[in-house]
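Box S2. Input/output pair 1.
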Amino acid sequence: MFGSNNQKSMSQDDGSHIGEEVRITGVISASKPLILFGQIDGNIDAVSVHIKSTATVNGDINAQNLTVDGTVCGIVTADKVHLSASAILNGEVRSKGLEIDEGATIEAKFTKEQKLNG
């Protein structure tokens, strides 16, 4: 009855979702995974971040795992970074592991780090 139109209800373990219609200015800190569909003007510090294709981040991202399908302008510091074919990245990447799919648009400085967030 209630929520019958929802594709999936989010349990506490799923982390936080920021919708496409949301724009946040400020700092976001999350101890659970963060899935972003909207726009962030500020820095993100989370265990895991997924920037969906509709999302834009204008700020720095610090995470253990980062997947980018959307747009990021800033400094990315993460143990593992995956840039999908739809990703747009402008800035700097500091990471132990980096995966870039063909088609990603990148203008960035890359630094391989031995120890970051782990």
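Box S3. Input/output pair 2.
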Amino acid sequence: MQLLINQLAKQTTTLKVLAATAVASLLTTATLNTTSVREANLSSTREAEQASQVGLILSAAAIVGLGVGALQANKGTHKTGAASGQQYQQDHNILTIDQVNSKLRAQLLTLLHRDIPGINRLLNQAKFKYPNRTNNWYAEKVIYDLTRDRGA
């Protein structure tokens, strides 16, 4: 859950920066247009249109550049593939059903009707609540809690 919140916070920050830049760029364009029109009163209307177009192009280039930069920054933070997924789990202490012995794994799969994401979620909740225990202890705790709550 904390990982999801951290990812959302990073994406929100990136979007805020992108939005602020877009607004600043549009304000700059409006300022350039106003300045260009004032200066163009002395010269031709054609020059005013050209100055306005240049300001608009510069603003669009700034927005596109920031968008590409934000995408590149996001691309660097996301890992793909099986090897990086395993590395991510090791780095963040995520417990999965694969890290539990086969007997306990079979019991968990039976109790939760083969809902692997649900099993992993319960294992990680137990690990968060009771740190510094063995992986099998967490599995036993989840099994105990499930059977107790079901009244079996």
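Caption for Box S3: The chain is about 80% helix and 0% strand. The first helix runs from residue 2 to 40.
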